[in-house]
Design brief:
The complex is a heterodimer of chains A (317) and B (363). Chain A is an alpha+beta fold. Chain A contains 11 helices and 9 strands. Chain A has 2 domains: 181 residues, Butyryl-Coa Dehydrogenase, subunit A, domain 1 (Orthogonal Bundle); 130 residues, Butyryl-CoA Dehydrogenase, subunit A, domain 3. Helix content of chain A is 56%, strand content 12%. In chain A, strands 1-3-4-7 form a 4-stranded mixed β-sheet, covered by helices on one side. A 3-stranded antiparallel β-sheet of chain A has the order 2-6-5, with no helix packed on it. Chain A has a two-stranded antiparallel ribbon with strand order 8-9. The two termini of chain A are 32 Å apart. In chain B, α3 runs parallel beside α8. Chain B starts with 6 loop residues before the first helix and ends in a 5-residue tail after the last helix.
Chain lengths: 317, 363
């Protein structure tokens, strides 16, 4: 990381430490804390060029912010808006960029409907699991060939899933206006962005577990001093670091799919171990371990499960 | 090993299957006040047919069923989709202790009420600072006129939010750690008892903290000798870890459901894992049937604890991967399965038991 990127990471981390309250955020009507989102857009974490009213942050800076949001599980429209921005920039429609990107840069929530289930999408039927789809003001959609701006309609609704920290919705769009071509590379960018978030979640899950096992005393010593637990946390560390490498190595379709499979499985394993190594306290609602576990499950499924991407990889390599 | 059933067992199996087929219905969660009472009523309907405690002596409400018949009952019970057993802590943890260490008076007073779910029991072992290291527990029982006064705090007490009575270990002295502990029964509605339900990761209070402030326990509710509580408790701890709490029927039924799920959502990439989970359930079934010939020792129960708890997690994770984000019918089972490697002695503790007591490795 450059000194500027380190400063950005610290700024986001300290913002979240001060202002992020996950339990309160998921109870709000929007499913995220609007104040935190406003502060994030002020820092300038969206990958919007300066000529469109953005901070000039690139994908690298957005990735850093996503990893920080993953650490704390803070619900945020950053992933949704980032995907809309990337799709819009790739469509190379000057008019649409000038009209929409400054609004997104200012915090107007945007989202993207895209066929990550692997099936064709005709822009007509209800689209499920749309990020922030119940409240996004700017909604873009693709049928796999072109990119459209659509009217999300009035019938959109929040879809409660196991992971309460990620706001998903079912949207039935109408009135599609073509903006330009759809770049399939946006899918790979989406996967890489999600992987960065997963790495943050896994890293924090491990940190919390290490902290717990250093302070929890049984048999007269901290349980983290027992080799049976040490080795499991050492294995978790290996998973976190290799997942970080996989997420950071994204350059193309194959490396993005590899990262999605690897990071999803690594996070799931780390979060499941977090529960086991915390013992009884992790089975309570009050402790955050179940939020990490549910996030691990949900983000494994989001944008296609590891199994789905493995099938895709098999056909490619 | 011959696994074919004799005529009497076949007839018992047919009776159980027919009764369950006409009586099983779905109930609200037992971790709600209303669902708890629904489960209590279900236990009573089982008891009316002498099906709540089939292996017990008839005088206490059972049928004196053999271990084989009990295994058959469990297979039928779980295959039918019957409700979870709200009385299970009493039936599978306290009752074996009373059979081994209780007095005739205690058995006559406690067991029939347990079999009919007139009294539902919660366990009160763990404390905030005594989980895996149970022998470090600090709650005390002090002598008073006609009995004992309990002071301290218990936690992770399953079913305590709505149960009637509880059993647990208390420090009576003299001595430290395993010495000077006594096994006592107490009423959760007694003066001085405060129960604070703890919401579990599914959002429902499946367990609770119990605060005890000079709670009176009469002498007749001491199980075994005063000061001998550790031995009394541990002589039947294998029940929780071993096959009685987690009968193979529970896992063979879940494996069958998993195979059905696969038929509806065939995903070739997950086929091996579905078959592995099914094989695991079969292996566990065969392992427990093997115990018919030579009952499992305490340390051997640690083997089954590791096996069934990790099998349960694998079964549910495979189902979740088949279903994706929305996992009707499997979500709560998955969340519950995660506690399996933790309760009844964590799997780390079980592996230590296996290493030290079965393999003879140095401590």
């Amino acid at each position: 990381m450059t000194p500027e990127q380190l400063a950005l990471r610290d700024a986001v981390r300290s913002l979240l430490a001060k202002h992020s309250d996950v339990r309160a955020a998921i109870e709000t009507p929007h499913g995220y804390d609007k104040d935190v989102w406003a502060r994030l857009t002020d820092i300038g974490v969206l990958p919007i060029p300066e000529r469109y009213g953005g901070s000039g942050a690139t994908r690298a800076e957005t990735t850093i912010a996503l990893e920080e949001l993953g650490r704390t599980l803070t619900p945020s429209p950053l992933l949704a808006s980032t995907l809309a921005v990337e799709a819009l920039l790739a469509a190379e429609n000057e008019e649409a960029c000038e009209r929409l990107l400054p609004r997104i840069a200012d915090g107007t929530v945007a989202t993207l409907i895209w066929p990550w289930h692997g099936t064709e999408y005709d822009l007509d039927g209800p689209a499920r699991y749309v990020l922030n789809g119940d409240t996004a003001e700017i909604v873009l959609a693709t049928d796999g060939t072109d990119l459209y701006e659509v009217d999300p309609g009035a019938a959109r609704e929040h879809t409660p899933t196991m992971d309460q920290t990620r706001r998903l919705a079912t949207v039935t769009p109408s009135g599609a206006t073509r903006l330009g071509p759809w770049d399939p590379g946006v899918r790979d960018i989406a996967l890489a962005a999600l992987c960065a978030e997963q790495v943050g979640t896994a890293a924090r899950a491990l940190e919390l577990t290490v902290e717990h096992t250093k302070t929890r005393v049984q048999f007269g010593r901290p349980i983290g001093s027992f080799q049976a637990l040490k080795h499991r946390m050492a294995d978790m560390h290996v998973l976190v670091e290799t997942a970080r490498s996989a997420a950071g190595a994204f350059t193309d379709e194959i490396s993005a799919a590899v990262a999605k499979v690897y990071c999803s499985e690594a996070l799931f394993e780390v979060a499941a171990e977090m529960v086991q190594l915390h013992g009884g306290i992790a089975i309570t609602w009050e402790h955050d371990a179940h939020l990490y576990l549910k996030r691990a499950h949900g983000s494994g499924q989001l944008f296609g499960s590891p199994v789905m991407h493995l099938q895709r990889l098999k056909a490619k390599i | 090993m011959d696994l074919s059933l004799d005529a009497e067992t076949l007839s018992f199996q047919a009776e159980v299957r027919a009764w369950l087929a006409s009586h099983v219905r779905s109930l609200s969660s037992m971790d709600t006040a209303e669902g708890f009472e629904e489960h209590r009523a279900w236990e009573r309907s089982l008891a009316a047919e002498r099906l709540s405690v089939v292996s017990w002596p008839a005088v206490y409400g059972g049928r004196e069923a053999s271990l084989l018949q009990w295994l058959v009952f469990e297979e039928e019970y779980h295959a039918s989709g019957a409700p979870g057993r709200v009385s299970q802590n009493g039936i599978f943890l306290l009752a074996p202790t009373l059979f081994a260490h209780g007095t005739d008076e205690q058995r006559a007073r406690i067991l029939p009420a347990m079999a009919r779910a007139d009294e539902v029991w919660a366990q009160a072992w763990s404390e905030p600072e005594a989980g895996s290291d149970l022998a470090s527990l600090r709650s005390t029982a002090t002598r008073c006129d006609g009995g004992w006064l309990l002071r301290g705090q218990k936690t992770w007490s399953s079913r305590a939010a709505f149960a009637d009575r509880a059993f647990g270990l208390f420090r009576t002295g003299p001595g430290e750690r395993h010495r000077g502990l006594t096994y006592l029964l107490f009423d959760l509605r007694s003066d001085g008892v405060t129960v604070r339900p703890i919401d579990q990761l599914d959002g429902e209070p499946g367990f609770a903290e119990i605060f005890l402030d000079d709670v009176f326990v009469p002498d007749h509710d001491v199980v075994g000798e005063v000061g001998d509580g550790w031995r009394v408790a541990m002589s039947t701890a294998g029940n929780e870890r071993g096959l009685t709490l987690r009968s193979p029927g529970r896992f063979t039924a879940a494996a069958s459901r998993l195979v059905e799920l696969y038929r509806k959502n065939p995903d070739p990439a997950l086929r091996d894992r579905v078959v592995d989970a099914w094989i695991g359930a079969q292996a566990y079934r065969l392992h427990t049937y093997g115990a018919l010939a030579s009952p499992l020792s305490g340390p051997a129960a640690s083997v089954t604890k590791v096996f069934w708890s990790e099998l349960d997690v694998a079964l549910h994770e495979t189902a979740l991967d088949l279903l994706g984000e929305v996992a009707p019918g499997w979500r709560d089972g998955w969340l519950f399965s995660l506690s399996g490697p933790i309760y009844a002695g964590t799997n780390e503790i079980q592996r230590n038991v296996i290493a030290e007591r079965l393999l003879g490795l140095p401590r």
